[in-house]
């Protein structure tokens, strides 16, 4: 085998075709609402981590659990990258009619791309937070919030941070 590219071979690189059962697929016994997606900064140095918070509200009549998922998308990259990449998730129990604020860390290494070695590149990124993948079609309503941030500075090897 000489072609090791993952394009068209795994769900992360399918292009425009969505997987039949993506990560987080399923139904819930209640409804949730996401709001107040906040990033620690809209501009980061190339080696910096990103702090993220989001509020999850159980708007239904039953206590339930939700798997909150964070995905990262590179808006431009020097090498092929996934459409989006899961960078964090957490299962959270929320009582009916209540809300909780969740905090996450997106590490700089999660933005690294493989270009003969792991590299961090400047550019624009979109972070998604919700109960499913971005653009996923489900029978149960679910929201996905998004926010953009920029990374500045020269590209550098990950081990150089």
Give me the count of strands: 11
**Total helical segments:** 0
What gap, in angstroms, lies between the N and C termini? 34 Å
Mean of residue pLDDT values: 87
Share of residues in helices: under 10%
* Proper CATH architecture: Sandwich
CATH topology: Immunoglobulin-like
* Quaternary organization: single chain
Catalytic activity: Hydrolysis of terminal, non-reducing beta-D-glucosyl residues with release of beta-D-glucose
Domain Fibronectin type III-like: 66-133
Family: Belongs to the glycosyl hydrolase 3 family.
Pfam family, one: Fn3-like
Q: Can you describe what's shown?
A:
This protein is mainly beta. It has one domain (22-160): Immunoglobulins (Immunoglobulin-like, Sandwich), CATH 2.60.40. It has no helices and 11 strands. It has strands at 32-39, 43-45, 50-58, 64-74, 85-94, 99-106, 113-114, 118-120, 123-130, 144-152, 156-157. A 5-stranded mixed sheet has the order 2-10-9-4-5, with no helix packed on it. Strands 1-3-6 form a 3-stranded antiparallel sheet, with no helix packed on it. Strands 7-8-11 form a 3-stranded antiparallel sheet, with no helix packed on it. β7 and β8 form a beta hairpin. It is globular, with a radius of gyration of 17 Å. The mean pLDDT is 87. Its EC number is 3.2.1.21. Belongs to the glycosyl hydrolase 3 family. Residues 66-133 form the Fibronectin type III-like domain.
């Amino acid at each position: 085998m000489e072609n090791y590219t993952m394009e068209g071979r795994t769900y992360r690189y399918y292009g425009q075709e969505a997987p039949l059962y993506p990560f987080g697929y399923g139904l819930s016994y209640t409804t949730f609402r996401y709001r107040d997606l906040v990033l620690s900064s809209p501009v980061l140095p190339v080696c910096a981590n990103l702090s993220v918070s989001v509020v999850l509200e159980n708007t239904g009549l039953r206590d339930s659990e939700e798997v909150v998922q964070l995905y990262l998308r590179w808006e431009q990259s020097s090498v092929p990258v996934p459409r989006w990449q899961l960078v964090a998730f957490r299962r959270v129990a929320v009582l009916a009619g209540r809300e909780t604020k969740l905090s996450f860390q997106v590490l700089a290494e999660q933005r690294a791309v493989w270009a003969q070695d792991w590299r961090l590149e400047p550019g624009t990124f979109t972070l998604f937070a919700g109960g499913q993948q971005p653009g996923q079609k489900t029978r149960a309503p679910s929201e996905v919030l998004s926010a953009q941030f920029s990374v500045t500075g020269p590209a550098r090897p990950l081990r150089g941070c």
